[in-house]
Amino acid sequence: MVTSNWIHTERLANRARMLRDGEEPLRAMLNHFQDRFKEIEPRIQAFLPKEDRFRQLREEAAELEATYPDALARPPLYGILVGIKDIFHVEGFETFAGTEVPPEVFAGPESAVVTKLKEAGALIMGKTVTTEFAFLEPGPTRNPYDLKRTPGGSSSGSAAAVATGMVPLAIGTQTVGSTIRPAAYCGIVGFKPSFGRIDPTGVVFFSRSADHVGLFAQDVAGMHLAASAVIDNWQEERLAPEKPVLAVPEGAYLQQANALEAFEAQVQALIAAGYVVKRIPLEVDIDALKELHLDMIAAEVAQEHAGWFGEYEHLYRPQTAEIIRRGQGVSEERLEEGRNNRLTLREHLESLMRDNGIDAWISPAATGEAPLGLHTTGDSSMNLPWTHAGLPAVTVPAGVGDAGMPLGLQICAAFNMDEALLQWSEYIGEEF
Asked: Where is the Amidase domain (predicted)?
């Protein structure tokens, strides 16, 4: 089994409670994270460089303490350090988006989700590494379980930063599998809410029809805390059965995974714990769906970059340039087909749930363990249908594969059932 000195438990819910209660002063907290950062960051490379990072954080922490002297009045994420994927605009930080294109090209007002995090009391640790424009061209970040393996992408730095305990919380995005897959590869919890439930305003978009804002933490309880702080109209009172009825989507989709033996062991563990698990054929043409989704996002990224690509094409890396050129050739009719199919697929998946008495789908969070090498960020096939349909998804750590690298279990619910999904995921995650 792979072991690593870089992994460190950092549960968001517990850290937030200690900071709010005053059990841990902000100064002591920053000293702890500064020591951790100095030890880990040079090898993992999860963050973009930032001059005087901790001096600035101490100034912001002092302002936070002055604003909230009363522990009972402190907001939910008081003093929590957050990593921000470098396609989100943050006041005081440039946005590089993982590219050599000049950052002033992307300048814009602070992202809505970053502002919400600050309002909830969070402190911004810095920008985390992203693949170029959140697509396929990787950055320098390593997988903390094995430095020779990818952490996944495109939210590479966010996943690795949380897995190493350099921050308890990070944000990323998912256009196909860029939150769930890296979370699984790095052995942490990833959450992709229902499409649009976290406001994406202020991001350098790849595809406005597919981009979801995602969250990373080490514990589902902490994820619940963070989600409730950044999602409008969060309904804590929404009731959910303690043990949901689960479904395995049988067919071509599931057969894409190469760790099916491990997945079956996860299923059996849930059955042994008292969960009802049904096996439901998922009759979706996966290959056709991949092509349709790719055409849709390619057309939209070509639109987003129409001006930039014309001027800076020579600075774009090969795979990014290729997807933009592909998008330039996608017809308006094909683009609309992709956009319309999102709701069609959602209705199909939810009708299967209703007809079969299913609360949530379970499947592998990735096709297998994080692959060797830093030239690829892995395969997002297991995330595609749920992302295309805009359904909420969570991955929880669920053991290790043959190489000793983390595996994740992906849990997906009906649209807007995010609150229930996180409740279920906390119980389900306790079984592994």
From this structure: 30-422
Coil vs helix vs strand at 81: strand
Catalytic entry in 85, 118, 127, 192: 85
Ordered by where they begin, the domains of the chain are 12-230 (3.90.1300.10), 246-286+341-429 (no CATH), 288-332 (no CATH)
Question: Residues 321-342: pLDDT tens digits?
Answer: 999 999 999 999 999 999 999 9
Res 14: pLDDT:
97
Query: Token digits for 356?
Result: 């079969």
Quick check: is 154 catalytic?
yes
Is 85 designated active site? yes
The tens digit of pLDDT for each residue in 262-279 reads 999 999 999 999 999 999
Calculate the alpha carbon distances from 296 to 101, 177, 301 in Å: 24, 15, 9
Q: Where are the beta strands (DSSP E) in 284-405?
A: 360-364, 393-400
Query: Which residue of the set 111, 156, 158, 178 is catalytic?
Result: 178
363 is catalytic: no
Strands (E), 168-275: 169-174, 189-192, 212-217, 246-250
Task: Supply the pLDDT for residue 347.
Answer: 98
Res. 2 pLDDT band, cuts 50 70 90: low
pLDDT at 109 over 50: yes
